[in-house]
């Protein structure tokens, strides 16, 4: 078991290092941040002044080792445009993104799991086909399209603006629905197939033979076994909470991390991009790690290895 | 006693009601913008998205009258009440008395001297390096009295006051700037303008409230909110449903949709910026060993092969026009509507010029920054077809930002040229094509000016009176057209969607101002 945990931890650290290295390199090769600070017709000496100020005139390896050194000291750098600490700006945006992502996840779970269970328990019946047809539709519909339809219908038909306004958290419903629908489809399909697999497993037949009641069989025997793949999916969704809403945030004008990321990439704000990607990577990796550890709790077979 | 209290309360109420009524009558205006520049220092933040805010928070020393003439060809006093040329090199500005900053501090000559100082704009490592261009040739700025400032230049520039209507002329409060520092100032700016910033989050919104001690009041709106809504459809939905009063950046193909919506109208304004492309005509570009564009006949053939008027008509209708080089309506007396281009659309002449060139059909690569200039990519596709018709092979390469566009090799490079600066063609013609320009010096340089161009340019810069300067300008333009280092496409256009109950007109400018001259109650 200790070996299992150790190897997972090592994998997490290596993944993190690879991610931050790739981001460090790509953000520098996909356009000069100094040129983004200067107007398009700026004389070369203005661009050079910015390069010196940002330390971009140093060789790449020097910039990289300096960056790693700062990371180890908990220094995440400052936005080249605002001079604010990148961690501080990120934390300012985080609550609204978590609210959006959390609400979307809640919608996805509350709609998706029952839909999958209904499908599984009514396998092959029209209600199953309807439930699965709906989840495929929700999964396949690009969420920017769904968002735009909601916004335009709201404005043109109901004279109501359903986009975000920064001080009203009530507005989370429509963006969350937009974002949640796609994962709802995935949850429903996963829940259905996983439940079907366990319902038909030999141990369920054995339980029935022992005379255990239908409800108890479903709740105590089928659900815990069906939960393993779902835990993986939910875990990954938790990891994607921060970065998963980029498109929805753009469409609704939701002031979260996704919008900040798009903007920071567009303006070559290196410290901002690096920090956001770092935060996303850390969340993803941690979520994966937790999922791996949860397996130990749920599945005794892994524990005994 | 009781009566006395009631009476005085009633009296106070009677006095207060008209004031409150006046305040309530003023609208709270929300603008949905595509983005906001990250800092509101009005020089570090020089940009369209910044300028929408700057002129509401800060005042310039001199202003261009766009409320009576949309092109703003005349200068009017703003924070400076008068300006005098004491010697050919020295200008004296007299400042308006008793103008308060938003914290009540009264503006004086020290604030102006600081705002234009070497430390801030034009010294060796200035706080706001983007101001270098506007502050060119300044060698001394000095407060010579409580309300007088002297500015000394190293050239005799008769057009200098025009520059004080550009971001160079914004007056910042020295005491506050020095107290909080450059970065913090950009996050919570303070000026003398009609609106005082109350909050700013560069990835969400900026809010400002009416500054009722404004020297040129009354301020017509209660508050301004600039909210970032990146997606056009969302901006449009917010305008139609009344959430927003004004939206910016309507894509050219969506203008009709906005016009057809109830309760809103569209303002399309030509602005002082001209999208164009430059020919890479360098002989020593190592990435282009046999650069065919070093041959002027090929460049002239390419210009003659394009029917720009038809393209502009198709893409913009009558919202804009194709400029004759450097003949811009914002230049007052310099503008001559009758003057024609040296190389208009003429396919036969294009064929002759091409015949006279050494071009043998090789592919020319055109670097274009995706989505930066409205309609540019579509126009480029038309142009590539027209070039193909005469036998010139051009390939478009779309990239995501300018630094990628600048990466060689390229034969043609997209860019635009702003015309505001001196009130005459000095900037677009000489500063943007002369020996100190980025076309000549930057890593993405595209040409080397001819000796004749340099000579004529010097004559233009030296000219002091209008007639001499105008004649020198015509000679310089003729030489530019003879070199043909690039081609202008059209005057840039900005579009606003505005709710019908708002009586607002910004003039021909991408700058949005909401003082009483532009916004009527």
Automatic annotation (TrEMBL), chain A:
Topology term for the membrane: Multi-pass membrane protein
Residue ranges annotated for the ABC transmembrane type-1 domain, each copy included: 94-295
Gene Ontology MF terms in the entry: dipeptide transmembrane transporter activity
Cell location: Cell membrane
Stored Gene3D superfamilies: MetI-like (1.10.3720.10)
Main localization of the protein described in the UniProt heading: membrane
Sorted UniProt keywords: Cell membrane, Membrane, Transmembrane, Transmembrane helix, Transport
Record's keyword annotation contains Amino-acid biosynthesis: no
CDD domains, per the entry: TM_PBP2
InterPro entries: BPD_transp_1_N (IPR045621), MetI-like (IPR000515), MetI-like_sf (IPR035906)
GO cellular component, one term: plasma membrane
Membrane spanning stretches: 12-31, 98-121, 133-160, 172-191, 226-252, 272-298
Similarity section: Belongs to the binding-protein-dependent transport system permease family.
PANTHER family: DIPEPTIDE TRANSPORT SYSTEM PERMEASE PROTEIN DPPB-RELATED
Protein name per UniProt: ABC transporter permease
Taxonomic lineage: Bacteria, Pseudomonadati, Pseudomonadota, Alphaproteobacteria, Rhodobacterales
From TrEMBL, chain B:
BP terms from Gene Ontology: peptide transport
Residues annotated as domain Solute-binding protein family: 74-436
Localization, UniProt: Periplasm
GO terms, molecular function: peptide transmembrane transporter activity
Pfam family, one: SBP_bac_5
Gene3D superfamilies: Dipeptide-binding Protein, Domain 1, Dipeptide-binding Protein, Domain 3, Periplasmic binding protein-like II
Highest rank taxon of the organism: Bacteria
Region forming the signal peptide: 1-23
Family, similarity comment: Belongs to the bacterial solute-binding protein 5 family.
Name of the featured protein: ABC transporter substrate-binding protein
């Amino acid at each position: 078991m200790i070996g299992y945990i150790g190897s997972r931890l090592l994998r997490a650290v290596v993944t993190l290092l690879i991610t931050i290295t790739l981001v460090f390199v790509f953000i520098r090769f996909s356009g000069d941040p100094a040129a983004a600070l200067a107007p398009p017709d700026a004389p070369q000496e203005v661009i050079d002044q910015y390069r010196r100020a940002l330390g971009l005139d140093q060789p790449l390896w020097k910039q990289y080792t300096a960056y790693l050194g700062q990371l180890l000291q908990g220094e995440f750098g400052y936005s080249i445009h605002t001079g604010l600490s990148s961690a501080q700006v990120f934390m300012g945006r985080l609550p609204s993104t978590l609210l959006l992502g959390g609400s979307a996840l809640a919608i996805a779970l509350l709609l998706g799991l029952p839909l999958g269970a209904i499908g599984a328990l009514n396998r092959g019946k029209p209600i199953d086909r309807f439930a699965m047809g709906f989840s495929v539709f929700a999964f396949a519909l690009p969420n920017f399209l769904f968002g735009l339809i909601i916004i335009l219908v709201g404005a043109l038909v109901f004279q109501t603006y359903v986009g975000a306004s920064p001080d009203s958290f009530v507005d989370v419903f429509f963006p969350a629905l937009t974002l949640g629908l796609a994962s709802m489809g995935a949850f429903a399909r996963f829940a259905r197939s996983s439940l079907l697999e366990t319902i038909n497993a030999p141990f369920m037949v054995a339980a029935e033979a022992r005379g255990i009641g239908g409800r108890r069989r479903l709740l105590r025997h089928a659900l815990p076994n069906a939960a393993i793949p779902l835990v993986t999916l939910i875990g990954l969704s938790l990891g994607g909470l921060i970065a998963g809403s980029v498109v929805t945030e753009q469409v609704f004008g939701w002031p979260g991390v996704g919008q900040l990321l798009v903007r920071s990439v567009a303006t070559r704000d290196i410290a901002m991009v690096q920090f956001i990607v770092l935060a996303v990577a850390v969340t993803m990796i941690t979520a994966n790690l937790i999922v791996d550890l949860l397996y130990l709790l749920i599945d005794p077979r892994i524990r005994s290895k | 006693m009781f009566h006395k209290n009631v009476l005085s309360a009633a009296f106070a109420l009677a006095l207060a009601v008209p004031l409150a009524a006046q305040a309530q009558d003023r609208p709270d205006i929300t603008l949905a913008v595509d983005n906001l520049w990250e800092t509101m220092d009005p020089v570090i933040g020089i940009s369209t998205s910044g300028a929408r805010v700057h002129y509401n928070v800060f005042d310039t020393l001199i202003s261009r009258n766009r409320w009576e003439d949309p092109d703003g060809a005349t200068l009017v006093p703003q924070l400076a009440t008068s300006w005098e040329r004491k010697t050919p090199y020295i200008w004296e500005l007299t400042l308006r008395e008793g103008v308060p900053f938003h914290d009540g501090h009264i503006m004086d000559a020290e604030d102006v001297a600081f705002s234009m100082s070497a430390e801030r704009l034009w010294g060796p490592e200035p706080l706001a390096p983007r101001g270098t261009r506007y502050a060119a040739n300044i060698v001394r700025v000095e407060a010579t009295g409580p309300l007088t400032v002297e500015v000394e230049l190293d050239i005799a520039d008769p057009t200098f006051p025009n520059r004080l209507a550009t971001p160079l002329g914004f007056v910042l409060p020295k005491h506050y700037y020095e107290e909080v520092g450059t970065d913090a100032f950009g996050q919570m700016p303070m000026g003398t303008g009609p609106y005082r910033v109350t909050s700013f989050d560069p990835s969400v919104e900026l809010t400002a409230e009416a500054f009722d001690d404004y020297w040129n009041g009354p301020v017509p709106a209660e508050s301004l909110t600039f909210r970032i809504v990146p997606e056009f459809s969302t901006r449009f939905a917010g305008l139609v449903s009344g959430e927003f009063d004004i939206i910016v950046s309507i894509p050219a193909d969506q203008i009709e949709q906005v016009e057809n919506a109830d309760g809103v109208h569209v303002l399309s304004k030509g602005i002082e910026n001209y999208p164009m492309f430059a020919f890479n005509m360098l002989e020593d570009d190592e990435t282009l060993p046999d650069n065919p564009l070093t041959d002027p006949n090929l460049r002239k053939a390419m210009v003659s092969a394009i029917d720009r008027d038809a393209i502009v008509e198709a893409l913009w209708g009558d919202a804009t026009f194709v400029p004759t080089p450097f003949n811009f309506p914002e230049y007052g007396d310099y503008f001559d509507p009758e003057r024609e281009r040296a190389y208009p659309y003429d396919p036969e002449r294009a064929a002759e010029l091409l015949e006279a060139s050494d071009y043998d059909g090789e592919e020319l690569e055109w670097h274009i920054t995706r989505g930066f200039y409205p309609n540019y990519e579509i126009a480029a596709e038309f142009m590539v077809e027209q070039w193909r018709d005469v036998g010139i092979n051009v390939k478009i390469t779309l990239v995501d930002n300018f630094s990628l566009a600048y990466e060689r090799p390229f034969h043609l490079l997209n860019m635009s040229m702003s015309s505001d600066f001196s009130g005459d063609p000095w900037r677009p013609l000489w500063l943007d094509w002369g020996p100190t320009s980025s076309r000549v010096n930057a890593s993405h340089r595209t040409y080397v000016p001819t000796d004749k161009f340099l000579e004529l340019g010097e004559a233009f810069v030296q000219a002091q009176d209008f007639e001499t300067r105008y004649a020198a300008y015509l000679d310089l333009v003729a030489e530019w057209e003879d070199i043909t280092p690039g081609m202008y496409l059209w005057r840039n256009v900005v579009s606003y969607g505005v709710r019908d109950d708002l009586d607002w007109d910004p003039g021909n400018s991408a700058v949005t101002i909401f003082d009483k001259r532009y916004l009527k109650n």
